[in-house]
Amino acid sequence: MLEERAKLTPDPAWTAYLDNLHITDETPLRDAHFLNGAPSPEGFDGWRETNVYGQRQEGYTTVTIALPLGDITADQLRGLADLARKYVNETIRTTVEQNMVLRWVSEADLIDIYNGLNRLGLAQAGAGTIVDITSCPGTDTCKLGIAASRGLAGELRTRLAEKSMRMDEAVKNLRIKISGCFNSCGQHHVADLGFYGVSRHVGGYTVPHFQVVLGGQWTENAGSYGLAVGAIPSLRIPDVVDRITGRYLADRETGESFQRFIKRIGKAHIKTMIEDLVEVPPHDTHPEFYSDWADPREFTTGDMGTGECAGEVVSQVEFALAAAEREAFEAQVLLDKSEAQTAGERACHAMLRAAQGLTRIRVPDLDDDPNRIVEAFRTHLFDTEDFFDPFGGGRFGQYLFAAHSRDGETYTEETAHHRIEEAQLFIEASYSCYARLQSAPQPAAG
Predict the structure, then answer these.
(1) Dihedral sign computed on CA atoms, order 202, 207, 212, 213
(2) Per-run averaged pLDDT (10 residues), the chain, 446 residues
(3) Exposure string (b/e) for 208-227, b if CB count within 10 Å is 16 or more?
(4) How far is CA 36 from CA 39, 86, 110, 129, in A?
């Protein structure tokens, strides 16, 4: 980075802003006063418990306006702006969890602000709890979306809100984050329970799924990332949430965090817990599995495709990708056992296995030699840009090339963790590439 910067022509704007940092200073609009037992309206106490926290400055609080799915109307936004002008000197911010906050709220104004928010339909409690789910737009508006992340988030929010009054605090304080694809716009990688959209072929149909990501850390500036433990049909994700949170509640040790709980019981045990949810029933008897949340349309229909992607080649590719997925999970289990070196090597081999299976669409007789696998993948899928996703280019393919070029490297726990993440993303990109190749005639093998 320093070498690149040395080539740039110096620009005073790089540092000029440092002379004006004071322009971001915040000051209160109203003096600090306390509520002192003032009578509160219905719903206020529950809202205050989850949506209000004290600032370091005595008598002042910060108020979170919870926005389900991050949505707010133009009229609500204008009303919120009026409240900000009246009570907080316009000190309003957006948050990474798709909410808004008012800072420098005098405690004595909390009831008036609650009433104002209530009139706007913005006084929902639950900010910073399990019902406060973060989600990217998914298939609603994003061309990269694979699954309906907003639809799933809305369904989970509704179900969890019904249970929130009797929910144990240990579960209530968990975070759920959802992405519609394997990019991280919904922050699934730093959630207690994260999900990202993928798809799988079942009986000639494409079925919406979500990868389940567990044990991410949203505190301490996202101190660590979670890892995917398996793809589950979208319709069964609420069951996954119920099972895992129920098990945490039943078996956690005193004061044990969710992240430590997941690490203690192990990814292999978690996978066993949800293994029966992986199966997709036949389309004729359960067509609901072939549509996504809040979207009545069938995900996709029709035959698996024609040409080289059909028949025996299709079964070989699917078998190879499933085997690669299993191997990437085995790498996680090894990492949990502190076998970082073997875990990193296993993750690399998982990428090779996925690349080999996918490339056999173009080179059916591709053998097991790693060098030939990588070169064939580069020639027949990467250089042709068939592997590229619509907007992200070939970054996932670069994971394979980088891992192969560093064959024999020594792994630490951190670098093995990164390699496993890369393997999972490469495998999902391979699934996506495979799905795209189903719909287009393939060139002759060479």
Answers:
(1) positive
(2) 82 88 87 87 95 95 96 97 94 93 96 97 95 93 88 95 87 94 88 92 86 84 78 96 95 93 91 94 91 74 34 67 92 92 96 95 92 96 88 81 93 94 92 80 49
(3) bbbbbbbbbbbeeeeebbbb
(4) 9, 22, 12, 27
Collapsing DSSP states into helix, strand and coil, what is residue 149? Answer: helix
d(CA 227, CA 212): 8
Rounded Cα–Cα distance for residues 378 and 364 (Å): 15
Burial 78-100 (b: 16+ CB within 10 A, else e): ebbeebbeebbbebbeebebbbb
CB 346 within 8 A of CB 325: no
Beta partners for 64? 101
Q: State pTM to two decimals.
A: 0.80
51 vs 235: CA distance, rounded Å: 31
**Count of all residues that appear for the chain in the document:** 446
Q: Which of 193, 330, 214, 327 is nearest to 264 (CA)?
A: 214
**Closest Cα to residue 181, out of 296, 292, 70, 315?**
292
> Which of 334, 337, 328, 353 shows the shortest CA–CA distance to 419?
328
Domains of the chain: 27-120 (3.90.480.20), 129-302 (3.30.413.10), 305-446 (1.20.120)
**Cβ-based neighbours of 423, under 8 Å, separated by 6 or more:** 324, 328, 331, 347, 348, 350, 351, 399, 403
DSSP code for 446: -
Strands (E), 255-410: 291-292, 295-298
Q: What is the dihedral of CA 386, 387, 390, 396, to 10 degrees?
A: -160
Q: Count the neighbouring beta carbons within 10 Å of the beta carbon of residue 445.
A: 14
* Structure token pair of residue 211: 């990868």
